[in-house]
Design a protein that fits this description.
11 strands; transcription regulation; 6-stranded antiparallel sheet; Jelly Rolls; Arc Repressor Mutant, subunit A; 5-stranded mixed sheet; AraC-bd; AraC family transcriptional regulator; HTH-like; alpha+beta
């Protein structure tokens, strides 16, 4: 089984980077076990996330949820500049109460079936002003500069969620996708515990299984079987870390034999399900 690599190991709940590259190596399909926000500043970049493809414009905001399989293509003839934020799933949760939830922007983006948020009018946007303050903070090496950047990031998140609430952002859709494949991806992710063999999917979507397999590979870069296996195992790890017993995880993630589940899990994560719980 081909698998997609985990990238960007996060050793704290929050990490912030300002990166500028003239030569960016091609990044293959991969996933993170944390959420990622990219504020695109300049360059020529095509971002592919779960079957959709986005041509970015300056100050677009890219939201990638943990376990989303994605990759990007960068034109190295143009300088590529961006701010990247790695966020542990529990970090934003810590800023949630009955009055506000900083994860609302992620929820709204999911509802809109979009990973890219665009500011329609930069000069009038308080969100854009908060981004430029965050961008400038990277040249500040005075007292508590790292802490100050975290404060500015939280300010950015507040303005981002306010803009999402008041419809002051465009949730970018893309013509660079196959609507049928997007529906198949959504179905798979919502039915991981069920039988998802090729014949069942083809019958459900009224499509030739051979045509579906070719289109899925062409549009996403991976086979249907590999995608399903990867998503089931990523879900399994998430459930184990939340305290769900391993035997229940096995069956809730579509496996009918624990030894098969254990072998597949160990092959992907280089540890057994019980070791995942112990190490955490």
């Amino acid at each position: 089984m081909d698998t997609y690599m985990k990238k960007g190991y996060l050793n704290s709940e929050f990490r912030l980077f300002h990166l500028t590259d003239r030569e960016t190596k091609e990044v293959e399909y991969h996933y993170h076990d944390f959420n990622k926000i990219t504020i695109f500043i300049k360059g020529k970049v095509n971002y592919m996330i779960e079957g959709k493809s986005y041509d970015l414009k300056p100050y677009d905001i890219v939201l990638v949820n943990h376990n989303d399989i994605h990759r990007l293509e960068v034109d190295n003839s143009v300088l590529y500049e961006r701010i990247i934020v790695y966020i542990a799933p529990g970090f934003i949760q810590a800023y949630k109460n009955k009055d506000y939830d900083l994860s609302f922007c992620f929820q709204r983006a999911a509802k809109e079936h979009s990973n890219v948020l665009r500011i329609p009018s930069l000069e009038k946007s308080s969100l854009f002003r908060s981004i430029t303050r965050l961008e400038k903070s990277f040249s500040d090496d005075s007292y508590a500069s790292g802490l100050y950047r975290q404060v500015l990031f939280l300010e950015f998140m507040i303005h981002l969620n306010r803009a999402a609430l008041k419809n002051r952002l465009e949730f970018i859709d893309t013509d660079n996708c196959n609507a049928k494949i997007i529906h198949i991806l959504d179905y798979i992710n919502n039915h991981l515990s069920e039988n998802l063999n090729i014949d069942i999917l083809a019958e459900h979507f009224y499509i030739s299984k051979y045509y579906m397999m070719r289109q899925f590979k062409q549009e996403t870069g991976y086979t249907i079987g590999n995608y399903i296996a990867q998503k089931r195992l990523l879900l399994a790890k998430e459930m184990l870390l939340s305290g769900t017993p391993a035997a229940q995880v096995c069956y809730d993630c579509g496996y009918h034999d624990y030894s098969t589940f254990q072998r597949a899990y160990r092959k992907l994560f280089s540890e057994s399900p019980s070791q995942t719980v112990t190490l955490e």
